[in-house]
Design goal:
By secondary structure, the chain is of the alpha+beta class. 50% of the residues lie in helices and 12% in strands. It is built from eight helices and seven strands; from the N terminus they run αβββαβααβαβααβα. Keywords: Calcium, Repeat.
């Protein structure tokens, strides 16, 4: 509905787009001729080539692998910042045997994941700004309630109440971006 809270004409994100945000649990990659597809996110060929070049720089012995310890510096070389715990979690996904090394395919998968993660965060910030009508850095839980209802996930009122209670831990009636982000990325 056009008068629904949190939606304005020309809104950056539709509720359908917000629905599509999810956490990364499964590593799936497909190499295409022109791009890399990771978790349904397409990485353009030029970025893939840049990532391959960086991988080669860190693969000093030419063994087709780099240390998981080099993941952070390699991402920095690609102008990407990631928290150590995030890097560890992602490295564990592609280094299933805990060898301490990842191959180029694993590196490209993580590179794609990072790009998608950053894009999802930007999209969530845009959605949050739309819902933050008063520009206070917080959204009213009633607007959040409307959003959750409109996602069409077969959520009951009780489910929504539970989600809001878990998100608005201080009971203020408002949710900041960090709380919103956690909610939108929860399972």
């Amino acid at each position: 509905p056009s008068s629904a809270p949190g939606r304005s004409k020309g809104a950056i994100l539709s509720t359908r787009q917000i629905l599509e945000f999810h956490t990364f649990k499964q590593v799936e990659y497909i190499h295409c001729k022109m791009a890399l597809v990771v978790d349904e996110f397409t990485v353009p060929e030029d970025k893939v080539n840049s990532a391959k070049d960086v991988f080669k720089k860190f693969d000093k012995k030419g063994q087709g692998r780099i240390s998981t310890m080099d993941l952070g510096p390699a991402f920095k070389a690609l102008n990407l910042n990631a928290k150590a715990d995030q890097l560890k979690e992602w490295a564990d996904l592609v280094d299933e045997e805990a060898t301490g090394f990842i191959n180029q395919d694993g590196f490209l998968t993580l590179f794609g994941k990072k790009l998608k993660y950053d894009q999802d965060e930007r999209d969530l910030r845009d959605a949050f700004r739309i819902l933050d009508k008063k520009k206070t850095g917080e959204i009213d839980v009633e607007d959040l309630r409307w959003l959750l209802k409109s996602l069409g996930d077969d959520l009951t009122e009780e489910d929504i109440d539970d989600m809001i209670r878990e998100t608005d831990t201080d009971g203020s009636g408002f949710v900041d971006f960090d709380e919103f982000y956690k909610l939108m990325n929860s399972e």
